[in-house]
Each structure stands twice: as structure tokens, then as C-alpha cells.
Structures
1.
Amino acid sequence: MYAFMKLFSALSVLALVNAFPSAESFGFQRRANSTPTGGSICGTKQFILANELPADINNDGGAPLPKPNTTYPVYTALSVGMQNYTCGADSTWGPLGGYTFLFDISCLPQMHHAPFTSFIAALWDAAPPTVSNEQIIDLFEQVNPGTALGLHYWIADPNNATDGKINAVWDFTKSERYVNDTNRANAFLVAAETGNVPDPKNSTVNSPWLYEPILYVNGKKDGQLADEVYRFNSNGGNAPNNSCFPGSVLQSKSTLNFWLFGGAWEDTIH
């Protein structure tokens, strides 16, 4: 429980950074908005994706990560939670989605994103197995509501619910950031996955880095939160590279970053 409380305290630091006047001294301009209507807390024009991705990120196999279609992200998020796996008939682990919690890190300078994410990962990894999803939900609800962005989870393929495929969802519809937003019901997106490369530091332990464009269903975008999502700075999240008993399930702790580009709230970038 001590490690869990340290994790809570560390995440609460984000709320303090967001509230502390010196955020502007880093060049971050906080939105003057007493009636939240989406968007990040601090300006995101300081964030450049190319500075997060190694120049050779697409040289080690997988499907390459393309450049984003817009220059700046609308959201920069810390993701903390679990990746789920199930053991297939061939006795190997296959992805079964997961459930993670997303926090706004736009008030942290970009140079601190990766080390802060690794710091949170170490605390999350040290938390005992007795820490449940319900406790994480409590943590999520207690953190400054402007810092808690939303949830990340998976659903059956909206284009074919019986094909066994799953698609990632980013859901901000219950976030306090959207409490006064008339478009709140559309503050989500369902994504496809077209870019997937090995983690450049430790591909055995850390989950792959991804490019996930929005999914189209019946010719329409499934959600309006963003048009493109990049996943990187992975800490953990992979299944172990060993044989397993068919039908068994596994949870792997995961801490990483998501950057979301485009979407209905792109005009909030400053």
C-alpha cells in the first residue's frame, strides 16, 4: 500500500504543476478558462513528436510510424494501467486489450515527459498485486479533475463484432475537462492500428510503439476526440516470452505516453 500511496502522491504532482504559477516560466501558457470545454491545460505548441522518436525508429522491423498530419498534439497524456493477454491454442500469449487511466502532462516540459513516465512506472511496478482497479479508479477521481483526462480500453471491432479483432478506445466523455462542452458526448475515438514498431530500449519487456489513426465505420469517423494517436515511451506492458496454458489470462502493468493529434478540439491548441 505504501508504494500505491507514493504513486498517488506522484500523480498529484501533476495537479500541483498545473496550479503553480511558475508553469509560465517554462514557456507554458495555461488556458484562462473557468468553464472547461476540452483541450489541454497548458499550451501544446512546445511539443514536437520528432523529438520523442529516435531517428531510426522505423529501422528495426514492424510497420513504420508515419509523421503526423498536423504539427502539434491536442493532448499529451500519461497512461497508467494494465495490458491484458490470453493464451492461445498454440500456447503463446495474444493481446486481449486492457484498461488504463490517462492524465494530462501538458504542463510538464517535454524533456521531462520520458523520465517522469519512467518514474511513475517504477512506483506502479512496486505497488503490490492487492492494489485493484477500483483503487486506481479512486486515485483517478481524487487527482485534480483538470489533470485526469479519461480512460483507455478496447472494444470488439465495430465493423465486424464477430471477427475476434479488438480496437482501442480513448474516452474523455466523463472527464471534468468537458463538463460544460456541448460536444462532450463525442469526446472519444475508436482507432485502427497501422504503425507498430518494437520499443527501442527493451522490446522484450516494453510494449511496441504505435501509430493509431481513427477508425471509419460506415464511412464516418468513430468519434471526434482526435484523428491520430501515437503511443511511445513504453514501460512494461508486454507479455512474458514463454509458453502458457491455452485459455489462461495474464495482466501486465503498463505505463506510457499517448499524444493525440487533430479532432474536434484542435482549435484549443495554443
2.
Amino acid sequence: MAPQEVEADWNLHDEFFNFTRGRFVLDEKEQMSKRRVSFDMNELARIAASSVGAKRCINIEKCADGMFNKAYVFTLDNERQVIGKVPNPNAGIPHYTTASEVATIDFMRNVLKTPAPEVYAWSSRLDGRNKVGAEYMIMEKLDGIPLGKVWPTLDPADQMKIFLQVFDYQRVWTATKFASFGSLYYTNDLDELLRKPLFAERDGQTVKFDRFAIGPATGREWSDDGRDVLKCDRGPWKSVYDYRRAIGLREKFAIECSPRTPKQLAMLYGPGLYQPTRMKRLRATQSYLELLEILLPDDPSLANGHLWHDDLHSENIFVNREKPTEVVGIIDWQSTQISPLFDHCMDPSFLDYNGAPIGDSLKRPELPKDYNSLPECDKKEVIKHYYDKSVMVAWRMLVKQKNPSQYTAAMFENTTKGYLLLLSRRLYELGEPQFHALSLDLWREWLESHPDNREKVAKFPLAFSDETISEIDADREAAQLSAEAMKSIQQRLGELWPEKSLIEHGNYEEFKASLLQIKEELAAELALTPEERDIFHKFWPFDD
């Protein structure tokens, strides 16, 4: 868009307010409505200019649509640029999501010295003082480029410099322990009944921060798929048990209140495959609540609350243009919350490792013995996996040596208990067959670890009859078939696969035609009766 020489009416640009990045293949009408925001762009442009001493805005460029927010680059008449951010209706709980993000950025930037953009102006309340008509943030435009633009071109030594800096930030986050669980706010943004004073342990000393307080959790799991309207306990909580119990009750309540199972693209349901029922999903939440006490790790270092960035992918980390080994900032602090380490992402996702769990051996990877005889196309894939695993092993070695609590949490995440705790956070959407199967696995591990102690064996919270075991095993197998069926759809669609249920405008019609053919092929492969075809169509997640 060309710079404006005269005062413009920015409200005439409808693309500023709508989701324009692509089309959704699941519940498109609903998805689009969740991502339309109406507000006064002229007023937001005025605030953007005044926030840094400019007189007016001369250009506005909309950034690529995010799934939860709209962002804009405001070019001002003093040659400065700032970022404006407006949350979509699906971003989270009104007021709390923006208020927490601003306070979190402030705390990270000015207390923990993690590089985050400075916030110049913001409003989280739709009251008489907010002339924009929407929540908003105006913040610093980082002087750098996303790490993703340079990471693949960096040699291992330079990549090591990057992850050493990220590790240093995470070590500070680990060392800062909070007395409660929830999300961070400015004290005056919370009602007195919804806040707890911010006591944090730093370097072994307990410090009180009067400007900040801990209030309701704003993590994405507390608002996704309609959870934002649930009247459930959102914290803050004094203990990890209370926090984790609230998660189970939230998922149970969501299942009870929802008339349908949310659509997803991890498993295909239907005849010959797994078929979810409300009873099975509720049973999973009840099992979780009964298991909770023995699921929580014994290590006291994993019982503290920590503030953490859980989405450190290469587009959220900015590096110096001229010196790309220097991190200049980290963006996207929305929905950050204070949780135990085992509920945070211990390995930054920019490392891009997608292989099997690393484990505790931390052996340096080796190329397969038949590497030289492999076709060239296979060699490239083998080399990439070898290299990615080498970087991940180096990362884990660093964490193990220099930040033991973080390493302990990473190891715990790959245990049966860790997987159960992970699944428990999303039982409303999916995962109940895997949860039941892992609960059975945990029971068997319990029996093996106490072979001669009947009293201890009897204390396992769940009981499994032969009939229950048979049902769980059958559902485990059916769920595996469901995952494979969805994977088959993904492979058949190839580049047309709708990542996060989103597809580019230009590919939409081709996608629909291909999907219709795949749907008929799958129905034929499953050899469905007319009655089963009706069930298959009922569970088919994609829009017709």
C-alpha cells in the first residue's frame, strides 16, 4: 500500500479487519467470524503516532494473519515504525488476555532481562476511555529479522551461539520460582478476590513485587474450542495439585456442556475406526482426577511455578541483521502462564527435531552403516535427521550439565505419567483412548514395581476388570487405525494438506475436488454398509 500524503480514512480498508490469509476447511463460517474484529483504525493510527512522539501515521501495512491476532506495521511521519496488535475474538478471555500479556512482557523485559519488545500504549478494557473500540497494544518494532530466515544457513558453531543465548534466558526462567500458579498481571488490573501477591524466589531469596500479581490463567487451553465461556476455576492456585485438579474439572465440564465432539485433524472417526462417546471422554477425565495424586512428579523442583515462553519457534525469535548470531528480541507473549516446568516446553521448537525421544543416554548420533549405498534422495533425508538429532543432543547435554531442573522436566515429559499429564489438558478435544491405554500401562508398571507388596498394589487409584482391559485394548487399536487413516488423507493430499485446517485461497477448489475423491475411496476401502456410510459421513470432519 502506498504511503499517504494526506489524512486517510484507514477504516475503508476492509482487509484490516477480516481474516484474509486463506480459507478454513473445518467449520469455515464459524472460524472466520472468530477472526473478524471491528474497530476504529483511524483512532488506533492516531495512538500509534502519539505513542512515540509523531504527528500522524502515513502508512499502515497489515502483517500476515495470525490465528489469534491481527498485527500491523504503522509507518509514522517521524520515520519511525511501530507494531499494532489487536486480538481476535478467539484470542482468549476479554481484558485478561491483553492485560496479562502486557504485564508479562514488562516483567520479562525489565525484571528478568529477557529481550522483549517495549510496549508504548495499550488498553485491555472496552470502556469510555478506549476510543478504538477493541483491545490493543502498540509496541516496539524489533530491529532485526526472524531467526527462521537465517537458521538453516548458519554453521553449527553459529547455531550454538544462538541456542546458548536462549538457554541463558531459560536458565533465568527456571531460577525464578513463583509461589502461585496462574498468569501475571499488574496488580491494579485485577479485582482483589482474583489476585495473589507476587512472591518470587530469585537466587535463593524471596522477593515481593508490589506492581505485579498472579491472577486467572490465560493459557490457550483455557479458551480454545469454547472453553472461554465455561464458568470454571481459572485460578490463581496455591499448589500444583489444585492447579492440576482445576484442569481436570475444566475438561470434564467442557465435555458435559458441549453438544458435540470438537472437530480435529489428528484422527479420523467412523465405522471400522475409533468412535468417541461422551461416556468414554468423561470416564477419562474422572480417571485423571483419581490418578492425579500419583501422576504428579516426586521431585520438588518440579512443583514450583515458572513463567515461560512455550512457543519459541524461529519466527518468534529475532536476530541482528548484520550479526545473526545475536538475539535482539522474542515476540508473542500472549497466553503465557505460570505453570510447573513439566507443563512447559523444555526444548525450543526452533531446534526443529521431529525424531524419536532422545532419552538419557545422549549418545552422539551416527549415520547408518549402509549410508553410502542409499539413493541420493534418501541420503538428504538421512543427513537432515542426523544433523537435527545432533543439534538436539547438544542442546540436551547443555541443559543436563547447566540446568538440572529443566533437564529433569524434559525427562519426566517422556514418561507414562508425563504423557498422561499432557493428554489430560486436551481431553475435551481428543485423546481419551490414548489416556485410557496409558492408564492401563501405568497400572501394569505399578504392579511390576511392587511385585511383593499387596498393600501398595491395592493403593493404585483405578481398577481394571478383564472386560475393561479388553475394551481399552480394542479402543487403542481403533485409535491407531484412526490416526493412520488421517495420515493417509494427509499423504494423498500432499501439498494440499490444510495445516491447522487452513489452506491458501488459490488451492481451495483443487483441495475440495481431491478431498471428495479421497472420501469416496476411503468409504470403499472400509467396505461400509449403507448404515455405516451414514455414520462415516456424520464423523467426516471436513466441510462439504
3.
Amino acid sequence: MRGPRRVHGVAALALALALGVGACGEKKEEETPAASSDSGAAAEKDCGKVTLNEQAWAGSTANTYIAKAVLEDKLGCEVEVTKIAEIPVFQAMADGKVDAVLEDWQHTDEYAKYIEEAGTVVDGGPLGVEGHIGWFVPKYVIDENPEFATWEGLKGKEDLFKTAESGDQGMFLGGDPGYVQKDKELIKALGLNLKHVTAGAEPAQVARWTQAIKQKKPVLFYWYTPQFYNQQYELAEVKLPERTPDCKDDAKSGGDLEQYKCAYDVTVIEKLFSKKFAEGGSPAYDVLKKMELTNEDQDAVAKAIAGDKEDPEEAGAAWVTENADKVEAWLN
């Protein structure tokens, strides 16, 4: 999230096998374990190369480098990290160019196309992290204007958020254009006098609203949880209309404007795998399928990487060392 990161693969550890291992993974007595003795059953098979895709936000970086540390240290895999955007990565998985995405915010159209229809991508189940998108303001804005706790309180007072870019309207600072969002539609559906302004990718958006906070200015913006910045800044969420069965969260899917007139849903973050990887017999698939993190786990590593500027490899490896019991459960 904070600029280019090192993504060099680590050369595979040598696997000393007296006899080959079949697809069923049956262990032969003559085998020599490929990785450390506490690596569990998964380390009994040849791992080979695994390609993980890192998305454009700090939480995804955290997941990716935790997984990279486990696969390299415990299974002897050669791990490559790619950086393909949220939607194009589905085709990359279908083509076998990416093996795993460890944080997907449930892109329903792509699920229908690649998982349900084509069968080229496999749903790997929940990561354990729950995500939520919403409208946020600095807490001091709510303290000074308690009515802004809900969207109704914004109506008629939008000019508090005016900037040079928004003219006579209040400014709504939108999220990264590649993210799931519906804020232009929501603003229109709610009849708010707000102008949707996009700063660009997430780092540029973060720079805008953090600068406003440093200057104690009011700012209304697209944001989400989990996010390590939420530990550094006191933010408050503006309550949006209750959800209905027809609610939609991604404007790219089209539909009636009224379908976007609701709060964003709480999203169970999913893991996704290419069919080729899922059916290829790699022990890495079994480990990644069992991989689970909490919001707190992710935030801690994301903060170390993006906030404290630690090397992603080192931050991921440190978490693995400090959470040996959790990792062991993925390996057995």
C-alpha cells in the first residue's frame, strides 16, 4: 500500500526423497522430511512453486507475507508474489498464472462467472477476517456535530465539507476506483448535496483524509475495516440506511438506483484458488485452505509493514514465530 515492496521468490529447499510421493500423498518410510520437524503432515509432500497474489491494501499484504513465511519455512515451497488488481486476478487464476488470493471481498459477478459457471476458480472458504465498508468522519466532527452520526444529519449541512474541488457542494472523498463501492449512487439516492471526488489509489486517498485530520478540518470519506489506520486515528462511522434483501454494494453490477440506498454489508473475507492449484496435489493448498486469521492478527502485521515500515518478509516471519500454535493447526 505504501509503495513497491520486494517480491522476490525464495529458492525452493531441497527435498531428499528416496522414493517419489504419489498424488495421494502416502508417506514412504525412506522419506526424509523436507522442512522443519514441527511442520506436520503437510511437509511430507513436494511443494514446488506457489504463486500468491497481493492486493493493493495493507491487510492483503499482511495475509500474503504470513502465508509466504509458512510455505517457505515449513514446506520448503518456492513462493512468488504477484500484484494483479482485484478483478483481473480472476482471469489470472483461471489461466493458472496465480494460485491463490487470500483476501477477496466477494465479487459476486466474478464468482458467478469463474466459480459457478466456468469452474476455473475454487472458493477456499473464509479467511476468518470480516470486512466492512462505510462512510467515515474524524471523531471530532461527530463530537462537534452529533447529528452527523447518521446520514439524515448530513442533509442541509453538506457545505461543512466544501473544498475547492467540490464548489458549492460538500465533498465526499471516494475510495480507490478499483474497490467495491456505490457511493455516487448512494449520494444520489439519498438526495445529498455532495460531490464525489476521487483522489486515486488508496495511498493518495489516505494522504488526503489524514492531512485533513492533521489540520482539524471536517472530511467525509469512504473507508473500511479492518485497517491498521483505525488504530492510529479516531474515526467515526456515519450510519447509512438499513439493508434490505435487494441491497447491492458494487455499482459495477448495475441495477436500480434504489438497490444502492442502503449501508454496505459486513463481508466475510474469502480465500480463492485456481482449480489447477486446488487439484494439483500441492501440500500448500491444504495449508492455505486451513489458514485462518482474526482482524487483530491482520491489523498487527499490516501496521508493522505499512505503519512501522518493517520489511514484509520480516513482519510475516515474526508473526509466524509468535503464533506457532495457530500455524501448527494449519499444518496438521
